[in-house]
């Protein structure tokens, strides 16, 4: 596959040298409450810390979603059952257990296996037969990062692309440039056995001359730029688009203007264009948006049974001030042998303060928060995953990731607004699928007594 246009070079990584000392842990307590999500899988919020007042202190959902993709480099085994609501309830329902059953083109099957996929994931088993049906069918699907949904819709796009035709045939909308790049990487990997296939990024900063026509067969971009390319600038002929994908719908509608722009783009497409929409959650706002964008769809939802995080034991330390929290944090980390730890803070301000205070103690830690460029954040996560950093101080931007198997401890200096997400992170991170081994819990209990 030919190289894609529109890439932006990465930014240098900023790191903070930081550690943690030993001290008294006599006020450590074991907290046994279980945390439950609501019907849509969203975390029910606890009382938030008084520090969290300014909107600018909150991490944006797009950054969280991007980092999910960056952290989850491998497929996550999803135990949730999938519920399929077909457009035609009388039509037979198919699922597949191997990619060979899909009768893919040889180059595409070769690309799938080159990416390391041995068999379809849970979402792919049910979504691919619908997306690859003849004629193609529209789909609204719920799926989290790491479950193979990007590969699924990329497979659908590549199945309909005619590499010999030099004009855009597939259009994918992402909330941000960085998320678009992640999708682009999957397309490049899966489509590498199509030498004529090209990819373009319709994002701000990718300047083209007025009147120029796009020859790339697949275009990925943000709604505002794609709308300009289709309407004002006429770079893309929307009437020739065969597949329209709207990824990260829940993130999309959280960004001002994206919802309206996406609907305007959809209305420019031909009636026989296949419409595919993916979202991690199915709140009412997402449903209303999906119904406007995807007519007459098949629907795939995750059956979320009542979930509790039984594998995690939670401990808490009673503190009356920020300084006491800091001292307790230092004491806890210093008293326990930990391979790696993640320390979550509610706000960027608190994370920066904590990093600076730990730095004064002469310890070494990485800081990850929203004022950093996404490329910087990705580099910090990669270093942490490789074990080059032992402590990661972060905000909600890393609340839903996984895939750093050596992490045994999650420390929350403030009340956990995203406790379930971070707890799930802890379950996924630990090598034996538990935050605490029995020995680790015994040692904490002894310290507490």
Summarize the structure in short.
This protein is α/β, with parallel strands linked by helices and 449 residues long.
Distance between the termini: 62 Å
| pLDDT averaged over residues | 73
The SSE order reads: EHEHHEHEHEEHEHHEHEEHEHEHEEHH
Question: How many individual helices?
Answer: 14
Measured as a percent range, the helix fraction is 25-40%
What is the level 1 CATH name of the largest domain? Alpha Beta
Largest sheet: 8 strands, mixed
Q: Could you tell me the CATH topology label of the largest domain.
A: Rossmann fold
**Low-pLDDT residue intervals, each spanning 5 or more residues:** 6-59, 305-309, 399-408, 415-449
Number of DSSP E strands: 14
Provide key terms for this protein.
449 residues; alpha/beta; Rossmann fold; 14 helices; 14 strands; 33% helix; disordered C terminus; RNA helicase
Could you explain how this protein is built, in words?
This protein is of the alpha/beta class and 449 residues long. The chain is 33% helix and 13% strand. It has 14 helices and 14 strands. It has helices at 61-71, 106-114, 122-131, 149-160, 177-190, 223-230, 249-252, 258-267, 284-293, 322-335, 348-360, 374-385, 419-429, 438-448; strands spanning 28-31, 81-85, 139-142, 170-173, 199-202, 218-221, 243-246, 274-279, 298-303, 314-317, 341-344, 366-368, 391-394, 409-411. The strands form three sheets. The protein has an eight-stranded mixed β-sheet, sandwiched between helices. A four-stranded parallel β-sheet has the order 12-13-11-14, sandwiched between helices. A two-stranded antiparallel sheet has the order 1-10. Helix 3 runs parallel beside helix 4 and helix 4 crosses helix 5. The radius of gyration is 23 Å and the shape is globular. The N and C termini lie far apart (62 Å).
């Amino acid at each position: 596959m030919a190289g894609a246009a529109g890439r932006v070079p990465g930014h240098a990584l900023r790191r903070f040298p930081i550690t943690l000392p030993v001290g008294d842990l006599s006020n450590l307590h074991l907290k046994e409450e279980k945390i439950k999500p609501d019907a849509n899988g969203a975390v029910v919020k606890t009382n938030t810390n008084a520090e969290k007042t300014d909107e600018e202190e909150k991490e944006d959902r797009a950054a969280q979603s991007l980092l999910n993709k960056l952290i989850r480099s491998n497929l996550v085994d999803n135990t949730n059952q999938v519920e399929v609501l077909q457009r035609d309830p009388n039509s037979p329902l198919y699922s597949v257990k191997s990619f060979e059953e899909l009768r893919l083109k040889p180059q595409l099957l070769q690309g799938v296996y080159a990416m390391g996929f041995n068999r379809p994931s849970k979402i792919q088993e049910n979504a691919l037969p619908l997306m690859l049906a003849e004629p193609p069918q529209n789909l609204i699907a719920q799926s989290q990062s790491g479950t193979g949904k990007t590969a699924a819709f990329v497979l659908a796009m590549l199945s309909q692309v005619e590499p010999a035709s030099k004009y855009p045939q597939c259009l994918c909308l992402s909330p941000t440039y960085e998320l678009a790049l992640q999708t682009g990487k999957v397309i490049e990997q899966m489509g590498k056995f199509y030498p004529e296939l090209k990819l373009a990024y319709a994002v701000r900063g990718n300047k083209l001359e007025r009147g120029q026509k796009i020859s790339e067969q697949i275009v990925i971009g943000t709604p505002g730029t794609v709308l300009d390319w289709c309407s004002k600038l006429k770079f893309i002929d929307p009437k020739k688009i065969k597949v329209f994908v709207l990824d990260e719908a829940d993130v999309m509608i959280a960004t001002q203007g994206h919802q309206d722009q996406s609907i305007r783009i959809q209305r420019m497409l031909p009636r026989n264009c296949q419409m595919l929409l993916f979202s991690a959650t199915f709140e009412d706002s997402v449903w209303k948006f999906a119904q406007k964008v995807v007519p007459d769809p098949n629907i795939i939802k995750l059956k979320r049974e009542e979930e509790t995080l039984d594998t995690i034991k939670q401990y808490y330390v009673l503190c009356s001030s920020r300084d006491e929290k800091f001292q307790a944090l230092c004491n806890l980390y210093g008293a326990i042998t930990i391979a790696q730890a993640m320390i979550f803070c509610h706000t960027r301000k608190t994370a920066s303060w904590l990093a600076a205070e730990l730095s004064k103690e002469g310890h070494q830690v990485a800081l990850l928060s929203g004022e950093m460029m996404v490329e910087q954040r990705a580099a910090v996560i990669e270093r942490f995953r490789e074990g080059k950093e032992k402590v990661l101080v972060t905000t909600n931007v890393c609340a839903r990731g996984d895939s750093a198997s050596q992490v045994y401890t999650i420390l929350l200096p403030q009340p956990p607004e995203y406790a379930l997400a971070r707890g799930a992170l802890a379950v996924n991170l630990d090598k034996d699928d538990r935050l605490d081994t029995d020995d680790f819990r015994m040692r904490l209990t002894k310290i507490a007594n």
